[in-house]
Design brief:
Elements lengths: L6 E5 L2 H17 L7 H22 L7 E5 H6 L1 H11 L6 H13 L19 H7 L1 H6 L12
Length: 153
């Protein structure tokens, strides 16, 4: 449908991403239920995200796709550089006016603008070995994005 599209794939270590998502769902489900089985949720979402990861890797085999792979930490720490890379992949450049706007926005918000999300991946039964097994193909394709950086986001 969009032959000139540039896709951006935000990568995050699967162990951290699945635990973070489970934590978010735990909070949401807790609003409506007095009993939330986080281990069951983590297992369900581990399987779900692992299957989607496999589908993503298959879809990438289509000829002509333009995909920019960017790590979560880089998006958090170097958004201006990431935006420039995305524009460059699409054959475009970022204007000086846009760069100045990015900087103004970045300078105007506090370091905790998006809050701090604390969670413990091990608290959901998501051992490193279990996640590594579920995401073995992804980890082989993207080893640079498969090193856990901690459990806060």
């Amino acid at each position: 449908i969009y032959p000139d599209a540039t896709f951006v794939h935000c990568h995050r270590d699967p162990r951290t991403a699945v635990a973070s998502f489970t934590s978010l769902l735990q909070v949401a489900r807790s609003m409506f239920s007095s009993k939330v089985d986080t281990t069951e949720m983590a297992t369900d979402y581990l399987d779900f995200w692992a299957r989607l990861s496999e589908l993503n890797l298959e879809a990438r085999k289509r000829p002509g796709l333009r995909i920019v792979d960017v790590g979560y930490e880089r998006i958090r720490d170097d958004i201006e550089g990431v935006i420039e890379e995305i524009y460059a992949a699409g054959g475009r450049t970022v204007s000086d006016e846009a760069r100045a706007a990015f900087r103004r926005y970045d300078e105007s918000r506090s370091a905790t603008h998006f809050g701090v999300h604390q969670y413990d991946p091990d608290g959901y039964g998501l051992t490193r070995a279990r996640v590594d097994t579920a995401f073995a193909t992804y980890r082989a394709a993207f080893p640079q994005f498969s090193t856990s950086q901690g459990a806060a986001s």
